[in-house]
Specification:
- By secondary structure, the protein is α/β, with parallel strands linked by helices.
- The chain has seven helices and eight strands, in the order αβαβαβαβαββααββ.
- Strands 3-2-1-4-5-6-7-8 form an eight-stranded mixed beta sheet, with helices on both faces.
- A hairpin with a 4-residue loop joins strand 7 and strand 8.
Length: 236
């Protein structure tokens, strides 16, 4: 570990906390508007290993919010480009890119190997898969969702919270139309998700267990709600 690189956070996390980051494996599912800041901040913080999962190729219309990429990356697989950005940003981080979606039969093994899973997806079907697999393997799931000027973050973990499905009242995996999004919206929510991961791994602060943080950039408001889920939900 290059101490100078992490000097400004060592006093916050302590050497033990920084070593915990170095020893952690984090799975980032989705490398778009949310996955971009999550990947950048976790790489900069010194997470030891990142699994980066996305089946898509970059489109020009992605560039108002997907800050991992440049116009030269249009048409390329996001996972492969993102991995190169991580290697360039922080050679301390081991990165494994996967061009696939969360329904792929190989994805379950990645969840099993990860310490924390980050939901940066844009569809409920994929989120239900993440929710189920992280519940089965008792892995913390840091959820982020965005639309327009609005966003939300919560963290679920078997034995501590209810599952994401009942906390958010998800009744269907229907994707619907992609929402319109102001570029900074996923930037703020993704940064909060990255902070959640760092807190979970380093064992500091209070994760958003049984809480839903709601952001309204249009009015400049943040609200944190207590959420408990459905007591009748069997949680997978």
């Amino acid at each position: 570990m290059t101490e100078e690189r992490y000097l400004r956070q060592l006093r916050l996390l302590g050497r033990k906390g920084q070593e915990k980051l170095r020893g952690a494996t984090v799975l980032v599912a989705g490398l778009g508007g949310l996955g971009s800041p999550v990947t950048l901040y976790l790489s900069a913080a010194g997470i030891g290993k990142l699994f980066l999962v996305d089946e898509g190729r970059l489109e020009l219309s992605n560039l108002n919010r997907q800050v991992l990429y440049s116009v030269n990356d249009v048409g390329k697989f996001k996972a492969l480009v993102a991995a190169e950005r991580v290697r360039s940003l922080n050679p301390d981080v081991e990165v494994e890119p996967y061009v696939m979606n969360v329904q792929d039969e190989r994805f379950e093994e990645l969840v099993r190997r990860a310490d924390v899973v980050v939901d940066c997806l844009d569809n409920w079907a994929g989120r239900l898969t993440l929710d189920k697999l992280t519940w089965i393997y008792s892995k913390p799931l840091v959820h982020g969702g965005i639309a327009e000027f609005y966003g939300q973050v919560t963290t679920v973990l078997k034995g501590v919270t209810h599952c994401l499905k009942c906390v958010l009242g998800i009744t269907s995996g229907h994707r619907g139309e992609p929402p319109q999004v102001l570029g900074p919206t996923p930037g703020v929510i993704g940064a909060i998700q990255a902070a959640e991961v760092i807190k979970l791994v380093a064992g500091i602060g209070e994760p958003l267990f049984n809480k839903l943080l709601i952001m309204d950039l249009k009015r400049g408001e943040f609200t944190t709600l207590e959420v408990r889920g459905n007591p009748e939900c069997e949680c997978w």
